[in-house]
Write a structure and sequence with these properties.
By secondary structure, the chain is an alpha+beta fold. It has one domain (about 5-135). The protein has helices spanning about 5-65, 70-85, and strands at about 95-100, 110-115, 130-135. The longest helix has about 60 residues, at about 5-65. The relative contact order is 0.15.
């Protein structure tokens, strides 16, 4: 069976566009998946930083409470800790909440929240909000307080 050059040229022209379209569709899908994995990794990193900072600051202020108003002092310690330890100045926000009735021995809670823009949240007006809490129990006064 002989294949003529005319027949072969017609066959190549008919399938050359399909390959390009298939490659484009596959590459968009693969780039989207890589972006999702990257975004999930950054979100997990930020959540672990927030959880670590909140629990560490709560533990530190329970052992060595700041002078003056313990709640606002704890918030300042949390911001300073995020800046010194991780170099993050404008990331999470910290505030204190009153302890609940069932929390025996807890004076207040340090709550850290972090609003993030995420890769897949671009179509949504809401931001991804990470939240972490740490219980603070202060016995006595701060170091250097009179």
């Amino acid at each position: 069976m002989e294949v003529s050059a005319k027949h072969l040229a017609g066959r190549i022209k008919a399938t050359s566009g399909a390959t390009l379209i298939e490659f484009t569709l596959a590459s968009v899908l693969i780039v989207g998946l890589i972006g999702a994995v990257f975004d999930l990794g950054l979100t997990f990193r930020n959540y672990s930083l927030l959880t670590y900072a909140t629990s560490t600051v709560a533990r530190q202020t329970s052992v060595k409470p700041p002078c003056g108003n313990a709640a606002s002092g704890t918030e300042k310690v949390a911001y300073r800790y995020m800046d010194e330890k991780f170099g993050i100045k404008n990331g999470p926000t910290f505030h204190t909440e009153a302890a609940e009735a069932g929390d025996v021995g807890v004076d207040f809670k340090l709550v850290g929240t972090w609003e993030l823009n995420c890769f897949f949240c671009l179509l949504s007006p809401k931001k991804l909000v990470l939240k972490s809490e740490g219980a603070v129990s202060i016995e006595g006064r701060g170091i250097g307080c009179s």
